[in-house]
Every structure is written in structure tokens, then in C-alpha cells.
Known about the structure:
By secondary structure, the protein is of the alpha+beta class. Helix content is 51%, strand content 10%. The chain is built from 15 helices and 10 strands. The strands form 3 sheets. The chain has a 5-stranded antiparallel beta sheet, with helices on one face. A 3-stranded antiparallel beta sheet has the order 6-8-9. Strand 1 and strand 2 form a beta hairpin. Helix 12 (324-351) runs antiparallel to helix 14 (365-385). The protein is globular, with a radius of gyration of 21 Å.
Amino acid sequence: MSAPEALxxxxxxxxxxxxxxxxxxxxxxxxxxxxxIAEGNVNLIIxxxxxxxxxxxxxxxxxxxxxxxxxxDFKMPVDRSRIEVELLRIEGxxxxxxxxxxxxxxxxxxxxxxEDLNRHLVMREGLMKQIRYPHVAKHLGxxxxxxxxxxxxxxxxxxxxxxxxxxFINPVLCKVQEDLVFTEPYMDHPNNRWSKLLEPQVRQIHxxxxxxxxxxxLKERYMTHAQALIHNDLHTxxxxxxEQETKVVDPEFAFFGPIAHDVGSYLGNLALSYAAQEYHARxxxxxxxxxxxxxxxxxxxxxxxxxEFLTLWENEGNGDWPSPLFRKKYIRELLQETLGFGAAEMxxxxxxxxxxxxxxxxxxxxxxxxxxxxGINIAVSWLKxxxxxxxxxxxxxxxxxxxxxxxx
Length: 408
Ligand SMILES: Nc1ncnc2c1ncn2[C@@H]1O[C@H](COP(=O)(O)OP(=O)(O)O)[C@@H](O)[C@H]1O
Ligand SMILES: [Mg+2]
């Protein structure tokens, strides 16, 4: 089979004209600005907007090619596009306000045309500017609870769940996470990068078999625990928002995995932002206030998630788990695993391959080392103390107590 052709700035126009989007969004008028979006790593992304009404009449065209767009040598199955669309539909069923609208999907060419979130900012960037989002705890707490509960064995019948799992077998993208999150950061591997100044702290991690054993417990859990249909890349770069609205994008990694991997990835990225405020919030009072807001966001998000999840279980659960004590144990295990998966996400962003803007925008090497060291210490403390955590306040206390180890 020949490889599907990649769209370009010209062909994307011809393509749109053949789809219902031309009439629906652009009222049959072709006066377009076409703008490739460079932020993506994995897929080809192009914004097409009308010149006369660029805010309202605008779409994002996302095409999956059989390789990663930024790294063409890295082969990736185009089936990820089907998975992304199916997950957006499922999420949209349970949380319509938290996902972009799908305008068109072409399963032959793996092209998704969706709502342009041009009034929204990527959350990671918003946090770097100390923007406060009054509704994000509620939006994300409820989003995670609903999407995860409704795809778990607590809601679905055993047969329904088993029929759904094979539709989301995502081996290549899962292997990316197995390698980049749970394996390579804990050894000498050519993919890894870290701040030179932190060499002693990184070596300590590489030599710590207690720490590695905890990571491998999580890795094994990640690979074997088909608990619910998870987003599997739920970091602050996959969330676009403003003060009123929150949208979760990019679910192409989705598969049936541990619930705590989603919750932990998200909370871990809030903790990364907490650490990076060392640099981004320049004056002490601003830093303290914003860190308080972030710490509270971690707490409130978990509390809303837990309350919503338990309410759904109580009201809509399938009745196959009639034990109040089991519920308590289930939630406690989720919390402890959330700290573990959160730590794994943080460490891979600090000493693995996929670094994040929070830190790589810090040009001063000393300041970057201090900020990153705080992040590493939050992660290590979450990882090592998670089995004793009983409430989210424990996680917040561990986070706020962490200091930089640098200068050593
Ligand atoms: N629906 C959208 N509206 C506006 N911008 C978007 C939308 N989807 C993606 N983007 C932009 O494209 C970037 C990459 O998107 P993402 O879905 O993460 O792509 P990839 O999977 O290729 O990395 C996002 O960080 C955001 O800036
Ligand atoms: Mg992606």
C-alpha cells in the first residue's frame, strides 16, 4: 500500500472544499489564511481560518502520517488517528464541554478536522505566566472521574468492557511510554538529557535500586492493569483553556490502562510547574502566592475527582462490587498510585528524553538546576512515600516541603 499523501498549504484547501466543513464552517467561502502549526511533534497540524472572520470561522486539520512529523525516521502507526477520534467521541459523550468539536474525520487518509481552540492557551504556557484558572479544578476533576469511571469495570458489564479493550490496543504508542517514562530515565541511555550541574543528583537516581524497583512496580502496573480507557498523555500540554473553558486534546495514546496514570500525569505536571515557579515567578510574593494556588489546585482537583468518582459509583455503578470497604481501599490505592505515576511523569520530563517548556525556557544554568532539582525532589519524595499516603494533603505536604539539592 502506498503511503497516504501529506497535506500541504495548497492541498489542504482543495481537501477542505470536498468536505462538508466547507459549507458548515466557511459558508462555502474560500478566503483563507493557511498556517502550519509548528508546536506538534507527532502529527501534521494546519490551521485554516477565514480572513474575514478568523475567530469564528477557523478549523484545525490534524493528519497522522506513518511516522512522527518532527522525527520522520520514527515510524508510527496511522491507527493512532482512529484511536484519537474514537476517544474524543467517547470523552465528548460524557464531557461534551471538555473536548474540541469534531467537524470531519477521514479514516482513509487519517485526517481529523476539528474546532480551532483559538481563544484558548496551552495550560503549560498559562501556568508559566501565573495565570489563575478559576474553573480548571472542577473541569479536570470531573473530566477524569467521568471518562475513567464510565470505561471501567465499575460501570461497564464484564462483557461490554472486554469487547471494548481490543479496540484500543495501541502497542507502538504504549511502547513509547514504557521506554521513555518507565525505563530509559533510570539507566545510561543515549536518549536521556539532563542539566550538567545536576550530574551528582542524576547519578544518585541511576544508582538507587530502591527507587528503580518502585518505578518498575509502576511499569508493570502500566503494562498489565487494563482498569479503564485512559488518555495516556494527560499533561498540561494536552490541555487548552481560558478562564471560562477547559478542553483536553490529543488522546492518540489512549488504551486501557491504570486510572492513576492519567490523574498522576496531570498532577505531576502541576508539581513541575510548582517547581519551575522558582524562575517564572520572579518576585518572592508572586511566587509564594502562585505556588499556594498550584498546591491548592492539586488538592482540589483530587478532591473533586474523588467525590465525583464515588458519586458515579454509588448512583450508576453496575452493582458487582458490594463492599463499602472495597471502595475505600480502591480510592486509597488510586491515590497512592497517582503519586507514583505522577513521580514517574515528572522524572521523565527532568532526566529523560521529553523535556518541557517549564524548564527549557530557563536560560540561566544555575537557576534551571535549582528549579529542576526541586522537581526531582518532589518526584522522589512522592515515589518513596506514596505507600504511606492516605489523603491528598499528604501529597501536597510532600510537594511544599521539597527543596533544591543544588548547589550540593
Ligand atoms: N483543536 C486545536 N485548536 C487549536 N490549537 C490546537 C488544537 N489542537 C492542537 N493544537 C495546537 O497544536 C499543538 C500540538 O497539538 P497536539 O494535538 O498535541 O499534536 P501532536 O500529537 O502532533 O503533538 C498544541 O500544543 C496546540 O498548540
Ligand atoms: Mg500527540
